[in-house]
Amino acid sequence: MDLFIVTGGSKGLGEQVCLQALERGHSVINLSRSRPSIKSSRFKHIAADFSRGLKMIQRVESVLKKLDVTAFRKIHLINNAALISPVGSLVDLDPAEMNAHLITNLISPLLLSQVCAHKAMADKKPLTIFNIGSGASFRPIPGWSMYCSSKAGLKMFTENTDLDLQKSKNKKIKIYHFSPGVLDTQMQQTIRGFKKKDFPDVANFKKMKADHQLRAPSDVASLVVRFCLTPQMAKNYSCLISVQDLEGTLK
Description:
Blueprint: E1 3-7, H1 12-23, E2 27-32, E3 43-47, H2 54-65, E4 75-79, H3 95-122, E5 127-132, H4 145-167, E6 173-179, H5 186-192, H6 202-210, H7 217-228, E7 240-242, H8 243-249
Parallel strand pairs: 1-2, 1-4, 2-3, 4-5, 5-6, 6-7
């Protein structure tokens, strides 16, 4: 049995990752502001608002330090929690929202990755860090300066950490940045509600929904969980992977 630590597991892709891991007989710790309606003796919810940054991470760390992981073969951290707002041009953005965005999307995943790495090393358990990224990591999108920047930062953190692990010949920790494609989630609903002046590409996202081009979170979650549970997959990919990569392999 493995342990999955999932952030933002109360809805969307995060919730589906929790469910998929539980269905396969593994244990799950969910870190999110609200508790999902998941009932299982192998499921634990810890209330966590990642916009609080270091203080929140320290509270999570105190819980994880006391956690007995003897029964688990491996630990998987799924950094999924993220904000899409604020959107718009720089001069119109709210500074408080900008701060909360960067702390939630970038700073907290980095700090939590370190916490889990310390835990895994102390307890001599292999660790997978699986950062849920975005196509926005690779290109600028009008109105999305915050989201593109935070996701690009997470991508670079993944690449740099992977490089450091290779240089130190640390084979116990694996880290990945995963581009999941466009999912049919509440975040997408929020995106379709943006005003054109703040997000000029909003019509394209409405069209993708109308044309049934959005992937089901459950399908993508299945790929994420199966990848984490298949160690030999690591030999086939770099630290940057996409939903198309896994769809072509995990049939």
